[in-house]
Structures are given as C-alpha cells and as structure tokens.
Write a structure and sequence with these properties.
heterotrimer, A alpha/beta, B mainly alpha, C alpha+beta, A: alpha/beta, Beta Polymerase, domain 2, two-stranded parallel ribbon, 7 strands, elongated, C: alpha+beta, Cytochrome-c3 Hydrogenase, chain B, 3-stranded antiparallel beta sheet, 8 strands
Chain lengths: 150, 317, 371
Amino acid sequence: MKKLEEYKEDIVDIKKPKERRIFIRVKSENFKKFLSSLIEDLDLRHLSTITGLDTGQEMELLYHFSYKYSVEITIGVKVPKSSPKVPTITDLIPGAIFYEQEIHDLLGIEFEGHPNLGPLIVPEGWPEGVYPLRKEYTVQELNRIARGGK
Amino acid sequence: MVLYEIFGVFVYPGIALLFGLAFLYEWIDRKFFARVQNRMGPLYTGPSGILQPVADFLKLLSKEDIVPASCEKPIFSVIPIVYATLPLIALFVIPITGSALIAFEGDVIFLMFISAFITLSVFLAGWSSAGSFSRIGSIRSALQMLSYEIPFGLALIGPAISAHSLSLTKIAQWQVANSSWFMWLQPIGFAVVLISLLAELELVPFDIPEAETEIVAGWLTEYGGRRLALFRLGKDLELVMASTLVASLYLGGAQPLFFIPPVVILIVKSIVVLMLISFVRALFARFRIDQMTSGMWTYLLPLMIVQILLVQFGIGG
Amino acid sequence: MSYGTTIKVPFGPQHPALKEPEYFLFEVDGDIVVKVTPRIGYVHRGVEKAFEQETYLHNLYLAERICGICSHAHSTCYTQTIEGLIPLEIPPRAVYIRLIMAELERLHSHSLWVGIAAHEAGFDTLFMYLWRDREMIMDLMEEISGNRVTHAINTIGGVRRDITSEQATKIKKFLEKFESNVKEYTKVLESEQTFIKRTKDVGVLKPRDAIVLCAVGPTLRASGIKSDVRADDPYLAYGEIPFNVITHDGCDVYARTIVRCEEMIESANIIRYALDHLPEGKIKVPPPRTIAPNESVGRVEAPRGELIHYARSNGTNKPERYKVRAPTLGNLASVCQTLIGAHVADIPLILAGIDPCFSCMDRVIITKKSV
C-alpha cells in the first residue's frame, strides 16, 4: 500500500473497500510503463484475470493482480471506444495471453504486440466487427447474428 | 468315417464347441473383471448375464454396415473374416479333448505362424481403414509384435525342447507321463508366455494399439456392424486360444482324472488361466509404446534366453 | 528423432479423452509435440451477457449452472461477490454450512479427477473404486441440500437449508470410511509401477513457469508453490480452521495426483473440525433488492484452483457487468506450455492433469434463451 503512494502522479483513484481488496484507477497515458514498474516493485507475478467492460462512452480494462496470491489488486484503465488500442502485457506476464485474446474476441480491444489475436472463443464464421459484450448488442440481436442473420 | 470327421470339425471338438467356449470365456472375463472392480458386470441376459456376449454379437450383426469412403475396400472387407478364422485354425491344433483335431509334428511352429499372422491382420485392418486413429493403432500393433513375438516364440520352444517334440499333443502327453507340469519346471517361461499373451491379446497393460483414451479404439475405430462383430468373435476365440494353449503347454493339458473327461479338466485349467489374465488386466495401468518395447527387449527376452539355457543344461525338464 | 517437417494432429472437439468438446491443434514432429494451438468456445452459453439481463437473485441460479462439478464453488463466489457489493455480513452458521458443502464438493471433485487420471493411464480398476466412493458423497450432498449436482443451498445473505445433527453424524461416519479408502488408494498410486511410469516426469511444469504463466490450484501446488486462496485470502471461515496447504515438488502429473489425494484427507479434517465447531443461530439475513453503484471482486478456491468473479452494480436490481474466470482458463496457458515436448500418447494425461472443466471455461457469447 505504501509503495502505491509513490505512483501518485499516475493514479487517479484508490479504494480499499475491505481487507485484501484494492481498486486502483490509473491514467491511460504511460499505462504500460506504470504497470511494468509496479510489477517490478511489488513483484506482482500472478495475474488472476483481465476484465473488459463497456461503460457506454468508453471501455475499461481491469487487471486483477494478486499480490503474493493474497491481496487482490485491481488496476483499471480506460480505453477510448473510437480507437480501442492498448499495449499488450504478455511480455511482462506470459500468462495473460488467453485473457487478452478473449477480450479481443468479446470487446474488440486491440492489444498491440500480442503474438496471436486470432479467434479463441467466438464460433467459426462469426462476423468480424461484432463484439458481443459491447452494450450496443442486445441478446436478441446476438441471437439473430448467431443464427446467420444480418 | 467321413461323417465322423465332419462332426469333429463342425460340432465337437470343432466350431460349435469353440464358439460356445468363446462366448462363455468372454462372459467369464467380463464378469470376473467387473467383480474385481466392484461392479456387477453383465446381469440381465440369461442367468447372471451369461448370454450377454451372444446378445451383443447378434445385435452387432443387425447393425448398419458402414464402409468409410477412403478405405481400401477389398482388404477392409476381407480382414474381419480372416481375423475371426485365424484363431479358429489355431484352436484346431490345440489338444482340447486330449488329442487335437489336426495334430502333426511341428504344430508349435504352425501356432507361432498363426499368432504372427493375427497381428499382421490387425495391422492390415487398421491400415486399410485409412483413419488417422486406425493408422496410429496399426503401427503400434506392429511395433508391439516386434517386441513380444520373440520371447513368445522362445516360451513355446522351452517345453518343446524338454519334451523332445514339436507337437503340442506330445508335449501335453509328456507332462501327463512324467506327472509334472512345465509351470513348475520352467516358471520363467510360464511368466513370459503369460505376459506376451497379454500383449498378443492387446489387454491392459499392453492394450496400447487400442488405447481408448488416446486413440479412440485404435485399429478398430472405423469398423462397425457385422465386421465389428466378427472382430469381437475373433478376439473371444483368441482368448480361448491363449488360455487353452497355456493350459496344455504349461499346465499339463487335458489329463484324465478319475471319471472326469479330459476336456473338462482342460477347460477348468484354461479358465484358471483366463482369470489370471483378467486379474492382471485389472491390476495395472497402460504402458506407453516406447516403455513397452524397451521393457520387452531388456527384461523379457534375456529372461527367456536364460530359461532356454537352463533347459539346455537339463534344469527344468 | 526429427523428420524436418511437422504433421498437424487435430485433437477434438470430440475425443474420448476429453469428456467435453474442445479443440486443440497439435503440430507433431515424429512422436513429439512441438506446437499447440487451442481453440476453445464450443460450449459457450453466453453466461456473462445473460448475467446483465437478470436480477441478482435469478443470477444466483445462473452462476450455479456455470459448472456441473464445482457448482457450489461458483455460487459461493457469486454470493461472496454480491455480498461484497451490498455490503452484507452473513450469519456465522451460514458461513460454516457453506464451508462444509464446499469441502464436500472438493472431495467429490478430487475423487472424480483422480479416477479420471487413472482411467487416462489405463488403470480402470482404481477409476471404478473412486467413482463408487464418489457416489456416496453425492448421496450425502443430496441428503443435505436436496440436489445431487446443483445444490442450490446458497442464497444471497446466507444458506437455504440447515444441517441437522443427524446429518452431521452421518457425514462424520462417512468421512471415516472415505478417509481410510483414500489412504488406501494413495498407497496404491504411490506403489503401482505402471502408473508411476506413465505419470512421473510427464507434463513437467517448472515452478518458475507455473508462476509466470499464472497457473492456479493443484497444478500450481504440484509445482511446489504454496498458494491456496483458502489460506492466502481466507473467505468463509477458513481463517478460523487450521489446515495445511499441500504441496509437492514433483511438478509432473504424478505430483498433481498425489496433491489431490492428500488434499482429500485435508478436506475431510476441515469438515470434521467445522462440524464440531458449528455455531448456533440464524442461517440467513434478507438482502436488499437493489444495489447502489459499487464494484467487488470475489475469490474462492474451487477444486480446480482460484476462481475469481468480478461484479459491478449500477443502482438497479441487475448487475452492470459480471465477469467470471474459471480456474481452467487460468491453467490453459500453462498446460499449452507443458504439452510442448510431450509424447503423443501422453497428451490425454497432461490435458487431464489440470483437471480441465471446459464448460466452466467457456462462458460468454450466445444465450440459448428463446427470443
């Protein structure tokens, strides 16, 4: 927690709702640099998962790290919807490969430098540019697309 | 006389008896295997499910016949028949009733030839059906044959050397005459013949060519319907062949005892062998093909050579 | 042995070694795997999207149906996450009942897995014995919760059914028998040469790789890393119950088997302790229907490893976003790594080694709800 104070200029917001849970929001500029130095400093090796979510105007990525497998540190970063691009973290944490690929499938966020962003979980023949977890797609519409509509 | 011979070939001790034994042995194997595993096994068809193998066979016969488009059609259709016939022929030379249907000097060699031919037909069955799993399975079965065939052959030769005969009937009679079994005289040979028969029958721990969790059903994958039924029948006959062979080669064969007919004695002995095989099958995990081949060459073959040398120096018969 | 060129061997979506549909493309050089490309998603049911359509209470039953084997782990994680959103404290008796169910579930899941591992190695007898014992657990869980698979015992704010004292004695009696059986099986596995030959040094995942590739659960612990959400981030009553985190230095499939066997014994001890210290009192408190904007992360040690749920509320009675990450997805990267350099014959064993639950792993895309 103390170490987090050192990164004041990058951090927008810190919350600590209960024991062993920390939520951090950071600026999207220099995100990669911030993350790599944080990983270095805190020895954050275990990435539990990455959550991608659509907040309407923009999208958000939440990196759930666990510090010594104990404290869950969630690092949130905003991604503009017009050009959804973030640098990959697979070079820092190789285990992130499938999490990033999954988010690319579902939300269409481009991870720059990711080794393989091919389809992982969308079905074969899924139309390009349809990202089911974005809010503009309703369940009804997705059902229609899945049955070969559109 | 001719009628008697026809009766011999088709009814007793020929095809009818052997088919009956085949189904009976499959039932014993399944039931015993299931009981070892704390299951019930076949239960509903006939008393204690004794007719289940027959029912399975008939059901398979009535199934649709599917031939894969890319298979080698002539071989694909002939091999099931060949596979079911080969163990039947082998059984004709085994003295089930005390004397074999066809007995001649050198039938041990003939038996070795048949057993090699069975594996060859397995290889052809897998290769001709042209599926990827079948191909892997057939290659594995060929590899397996390369490793168990020599110890198996030597294990057949051991008793032959002692009995000064290459005829199964004479070897069995030698044991009766000397009232001692080769199982006690040549224990290493007995162990080796059991292990290599497990490999020949493709049973755990050597069910590598048809390892279910790895390659579906191996060389059998593409077969269904009546072809599969023939393969199943062939497998059952092989089981009979293996157990009666061990019984007559190492357990004294069909020796008469009081008023009990020799054929009953042999069947009882071979059922004991069968249960031994089922028991081993329940106790082990499957080897990998490379472990199996190297194990056979490094342990089984030298052991068997030692056994043969012992026999040559007059120890063990 | 190298032939210079590689052959592509498809594995799945239908394959007897995988009980669930998933596809892996192997590039094989001779008998050695050189490259693995997974293609998951054959059993997507659109759970994450569906979560956004339903109320919190409805979603509880949806969460339970993410996985057939670790259904209680998912619903525990769901309730933990939602109770973190509100926030809500649940009565201590409910905490203990949830914990007992979770450990019973771990027993049944681990015995299922060890059975499967034996089956993959061609050791069917052990498979039959373990699954016979597993049936007893299923019956026990049915008696407690009313259901064999989706127990539906959790609810937001507590549990729906109490454990009576007769049930408690029944569980204890069962545990005694089960424990001695498991010890017996462990002995068999430790001494059975054919099984050891098939699993030792197969699918080696070095501790360093296990950390870097974010492996979780028994896979991680079998690589010698002492990590268990129950101990590191105690939820329910795990902070109050003494237990050991089992690790093994083997790093191979054999180690994963032994870790799971020993964890079963440990789980039995946990259940016994929890039954002895079961607090009295209410079993549930009523939750509010709408939840103010908030976010929460729930972590549970499912039988397969760390399970993590993330929820964000928006002031209505439906969540804004609900994210599920099942342990199998966490282990996918590490299993792809360990498969490289393996024999083709070892693929099923290594794949099974992480205890894959692909239905858990695939969640999102299309709901099969009628339009």
